[in-house]
Write a structure and sequence with these properties.
The complex is a heterodimer of chains A (about 575) and B (about 80). By secondary structure, chain A is an alpha+beta fold. Chain A folds into three domains: about 350 residues, 3-Layer(bba) Sandwich (FAD/NAD(P)-binding domain), CATH 3.50.50; about 70 residues, no CATH class; about 100 residues, Succinate dehydrogenase/fumarate reductase flavoprotein, catalytic domain (Flavocytochrome C3, Chain A, domain 1), CATH 3.90.700. Chain A is about 35% helix and about 15% strand. The radius of gyration of chain A is 23 Å and the shape is globular. Chain B is α+β, with helices and mostly antiparallel strands and about 80 residues long. Chain B is about 15% helix and about 15% strand. In chain B, a hairpin with a 6-residue loop joins strand 2 and strand 3. The chains are: A alpha+beta (about 575), B alpha+beta (about 80). The interface between A and B is medium-sized, with 40 and 27 residues. The structure holds flavin-adenine dinucleotide (FAD) and iron/sulfur cluster (SF4) (2 copies). The site of one iron/sulfur cluster has 14 residues of chain B, from helix 1.
């Protein structure tokens, strides 16, 4: 039998898991606040090029800049866009720190577009306010973060997949178990505080192309953090409020309203007509998109062919060099030219993502989850529509609070029996001689998600889906990996399965429809504020079963007036000429 | 449960004449978020070992000798 002494144990004050966007910021802030603290950034890929912004970003989708927007106005807009189900304090905290974060990034050398007078050149894309700030040089953002990590002497461990969080006998989080993605070495990181920044759960649904990695999200983000938080006892929230995005058909990159919208591009039906008032991504907007796709006017297109040559060149310059630079190649292969034809769009697979929607591990305005010592930031945490700037702001908040928490704690004791049994569980697929390859397991699982869990949601279908997914839990003991890379995929696939089960459970619990397409529940077509004006929290109960409960909405800090409440309900253009 | 080997066309192509992996370069392998680029034991050059690509392009952008070309995966093309 193996002993704990065979396993490498690293001790650290603050452990940050996930080195994409929120993670580097959390680690840097923790070091800035307490340079004596030891801080580790653990990353499944390589922090130089990991996460949603691996190649950069086209702009800030939600900048709250004095003179253009106020934190109160922004909080209202996000409250309305989420049909009222928000922790307003959390959104307001973001909005109040947003400008400070832009200035901080600007000081670090991130370039934001400015007008002739040197002011930030903010554009209107949202329904009510003005929050979009282009970053035409957005491709260097990872380099800038990396330099800061080095300068602050953050310990970086690349190519480790965190798999389970540890806690001590007081129920406080005390580190994680991780496995090397190239050598399958299991290690333990003992930490006084942990910040989860593992990004969205982007591999729950299967893209229409059938290619497992043709997802909207960077596919390294497969829901490891959601699964780890669930297993350690944290609450997750709003999982029934799926992320579904309007994307280019097959390419699965943003179309992209934020870049082309301010320059005159828009989403059109097959006749070239506009059918939605506002291209800002919301459930209501997606509902209209879905309806148009199903109607005689479908499919849906990105329309740019009416724009002037200089404008199209400007769009190509941004869209084909920054965030998703292979887009130009995709268009070339299909013979798409923005000048001469509209480009077909489609809806993405489902996922969990607070960056674009509202689903994730529950956090409050301090970045605290419901488990002591565990913080969360970015796409995996529950602050809605937070996007890249939200990931930076909450990374900053978590870094500050986690290092403070760690200061008051001794190194925790490790649970030896748990670690040893986890190690055996994690490595089991490598020990088998044959069995189910992870790609087949994952393909089948995600195909089931599309068949049974995608909206429109129907009770009987979700029942069958849930049962089929539970049947797949029995296949786990047959998962087979031939090398450390396949082991990584086998462990990821188990987390994808956890997320799919969570999607089904939470969707069936909320017996109403809300957030347009995100929770379009055919058996309960109306929004029912009397019974369901609340958060739905998902957690592991005392029998280790997945359970849901209601959490009341905290009293609003900013009241809405009646007319504003319905602003996002009126998305369809009344008269299409 | 027996298994079979099935082939797949991979989207990323490395020009072996330009690749300097034999001089110790590992850049594309280091940066790939999906960890699908490895050294080909037969040629000593970088190659795509797993068909699990997000066509995100750090491998191509960071290669010092312009040896890497990222194509769109066949299923999406
Ligand atoms: C294609 C695309 C375009 C976008 N465009 C915009 C835009 O124009 N403007 C905007 O504001 N926002 C945009 N967003 C959203 C924005 O990029 C995200 O909200 C933000 O970057 C999320 O940051 P994050 O830190 O939560 O996740 P990420 O930056 O994705 O980081 C998550 C990290 O966790 C790592 N990880 C995952 N699991 C593990 C594990 N088990 N162990 C260790 N590490 C792990 C991953 O490798 C990754 O590096 C876009 C997103 C996408 C996908
Ligand atoms: S980065 Fe270029 S030169 Fe270096 S190993 Fe990769 S293909 Fe070869
Ligand atoms: S395009 Fe991205 S995922 Fe594909 S091999 Fe290159 S770096 Fe890896």
């Amino acid at each position: 039998m193996t002993q704990l002494s065979d396993i490498t144990i690293k001790d650290i004050d603050v452990l940050v898991i996930g080195g994409g966007t929120a993670g580097p910021m959390a680690a840097i802030t923790a070091k800035e606040k307490d340079p004596k603290a030891s801080v580790m950034l653990l990353e499944k890929a390589n922090v130089k090029r990991s996460g949603a912004i691996s190649m950069g970003m086209d702009g800030l989708n939600n900048a709250v800049i004095p003179g253009h927007a106020t934190p109160e106005q922004y909080t209202k807009e996000i409250t309305i866009a989420n049909d009222g189900i928000v922790l307003q304090k959390g959104v307001l905290e973001y909005a109040e720190r947003s400008f400070y974060m832009i200035q901080k990034l600007d000081n670090w050398g991130v370039y934001f577009q400015k007008d002739e007078t040197g002011e930030y050149d903010v554009k209107k894309v949202h329904h009510l306010g003005t929050y979009v700030l282009p970053m035409p040089e957005g491709h260097n953002i990872k380099k800038i973060l990396y330099r800061r990590l080095r300068r602050n002497r953050v310990v970086v461990e690349n190519r480790y997949q965190a798999i389970r969080l540890l806690k001590d006998d007081t129920g406080t989080v005390s580190g994680c178990i991780a496995v090397g993605t190239r050598d399958a070495e299991v290690i333990v990181i003992r930490a006084k505080a942990v910040v989860l920044c593992t990004g969205a759960a982007g591999r729950i649904g299967l893209p229409a192309s059938g290619y497992l990695y043709g997802t909207y999200e960077n596919p390294t983000n497969c829901g490891d953090g959601h699964s780890m938080a669930y297993h350690v006892g944290a609450e997750l929230s709003g999982l029934e409020c799926y992320q579904i995005n309007p994307l280019l058909k097959d390419y699965n990159g943003p179309a992209c309203a934020y870049v082309t919208g301010p320059l005159g591009g828009y989403t059109a039906n097959a006749n070239g007509d506009r059918f939605i008032e506002c291209d800002y991504w919301s459930g209501q907007m997606m509902m209209e998109f879905y309806n148009e796709l199903q109607s005689g006017n479908g499919p849906v297109f990105l329309k740019l062919d009416h724009l002037a040559e200089e404008t199209i060149q400007e769009i190509e310059q941004v869209l084909h060099t920054n965030e998703r630079p292979s887009r130009g190649r995709f268009h070339d292969g299909r013979g798409n030219d923005y000048r001469t034809k509209m480009v077909e769009m489609h809806i993405s697979e489902i996922g969990f993502c607070a960056g674009h929607s509202a689903s994730g591990v529950w956090i409050n305005e301090k970045g605290e989850t419901t488990v002591p010592g565990l913080y969360g930031a970015g796409d995996m945490a529950s602050i809605p529509h937070s996007y890249m700037l939200g990931a930076f702001v909450y990374g900053d908040i978590c870094g500050e609070n986690a290092v403070e928490f760690a200061r008051h704690r001794d190194l925790p004791k490790l649970d030896e029996a748990f670690i040893l049994s986890e190690r055996d569980r994690i490595l089991a697929p490598l020990k088998r001689e044959d069995g189910i390859p992870p790609n087949q397991f994952e393909y089948k699982l995600r195909r089931l998600v599309n068949d049974y869990l995608q909206p429109p949601k129907i009770t009987k279908k979700m029942d069958i889906g849930l049962q089929r997914l539970k049947d797949m839990e029995r296949d786990i003991e047959f998962l087979y990996a031939r090398d450390p890379h396949e082991l990584l995929r086998a462990n990821e696939a188990q987390h994808v399965l956890d997320c799919a089960l969570m999607a089904a459970k939470a969707s069936m619990y909320r017996q109403e429809s809300r957030w347009g397409l995100y929770h379009h529940y055919v058996d309960h077509p109306e929004t029912n504020n009397e019974d369901w004006f609340c958060h739905v929290q998902l957690y592991k109960d005392e029998n280790n079963e997945m359970a849901c409960k209601k959490r009341p909405i905290d009293p609003y800090v900013i009241e809405l007036d009646e007319e504003e409440k319905t602003a996002y309900q009126k998305m369809r253009i009344q008269k299409v000429s | 449960m027996p298994t079979a080997n099935q082939i797949t066309m991979v989207p990323v192509v490395v020009d072996n004449d330009k690749c300097i992996a034999d001089k110790g370069c590992r850049t594309c392998i280091d940066v790939c978020p999906l960890d699908v680029l490895w050294i080909d034991e037969k040629t000593g050059k970088a190659h795509m070992r797993y068909d699990e690509c997000w066509y995100c392009m750090p491998c191509e952008a960071d290669c010092p000798t312009d040896a890497v070309t990222v194509n769109i995966p066949y299923l999406l093309r």
